Description:
mainly alpha; DUF247_pln; transmembrane; two-stranded antiparallel ribbon; transmembrane helix; 3-stranded mixed beta sheet; membrane
Amino acid sequence: MNEPADTRRRWAYAYERGSADWGQNSAVLANRNRSRSTAHLINLPLEQQPYQASMNDKQWVRYIEGEIDQVFRPLFVKGRTIFSVPRALFEVRPRSYSPRIVTIGPLCRQLEPLPMDSCKALCIKEFLNRRNLQLDVLMNHIVKDSEDLRNVYFNLPKYSKEALKLQLTLDAVFLHEFLFFLSKDCSPDDEFCGYLFSFINSQITLLHMTRDLFLIGNQVPMVFLKRLAELPNAEFPVKDMKFHLARLVWQSNPFCISRMDRSSMHEDFMNVMKGMSMLDHEHLLDCLYLACVQMPDGCPGQEFNRPSSRLPTACALSKVGIKFKARKGNTSVIKYRKKSLVLELPRLAVFEETEDILRNLIAYELTSKEAGELCGYVIIMDSLIKTLDDLAILIKAGVLVNHLGSDERLLRIWNEMCINISEYSSEKLEVMTEAIMKHYKSHWRVLYNEFCSKFFSRPWLWLSTIAAVLLLAMSALQTVYSVAAYYKGG
């Protein structure tokens, strides 16, 4: 009989091998550890079943008793965890999920030298010197049990415990020092963190690095930063770390456009801070996701459990009197007002990095969340935008703020955003869609257009219809004259 550690490794290996072929389907993820059907084995002959007993009854009893005593409950999948991007999404636009500057965690890198490793090494050296710590002590403090990482990372690479500990310690300390550097307004003169200025020396590099921190597979558990915050640290206390984590999330949130409008910057930032304890979430991407889809107070999340109904385009809705209005906030502000015929949507600022951030948020929602709040939003936008004319209507209404310099680029983003995304809708969005479609289908313009498209788009159809009507009218006239002549002659 094998030892418990070997049993755990076999279970983890079998579980992860099965998940590799599974393709990261979120519905299977949520139910992986629930009841598993054995109906496919019941009708098989005994000799064809996958396991053959090779022990007598006493050996089997001792084996089962040992299993009961030593077996553990695997917790490989949690409500929120760290996944690689699903293959179906990765194939649509691979570069949106790939790090450009910095690789964080074990999912996006192999154990080979990378350009940012020297920066990470310097970060950890400075960190150890300031606190008078040894590397092995710090590693054991941050990553207390490397086996727990299999409850956080899905398809964790088969690295040794020592390699995993060192890699994640480097990454956690780098994130700590990066936040510390941001807290000093990226100053090269600060004696504690100014050394990072030689690595982060331009706005473009800083933006690309920030973008990399929100890739779905480029994450480390937030608990590691929390453990670093527990160490004595006079120059960077916990409250400052939370503040700059929130600031980083706020700056990366595409629904917070106040970074371009200083008059409402403080108010929007405080809204992000309100009710969000950054260090208590799973990781940075989880913090950003909750900021983007946060539900109003007292309103629980809604599960997406039915196929979505897509809306007509923005041009088509405008022709039947439906107007668009931009609202400040996230996806929770989506609303249709029947009386005024106004569809309210959150204002979205589109920068160079916005597409990558949205795609990674969607991938995270599909792999880790039971609801589909963000997917519902992008499905609505994808159905509204088909042409440049549709895009112009939403830009004029303030729903989209284009900082790409080209409407064609923005159109391409929305035309490709929903490829390979399962289209499921919540009850809230389904009711809204039904109300819009009821008004749309009953409008005289739509009825007239349907009549024209049905009859006048195919000349032979309306010509044959006219001929049939004339033939029917002539037959009726002939009948009338025949009846009239009969009575007149009588």
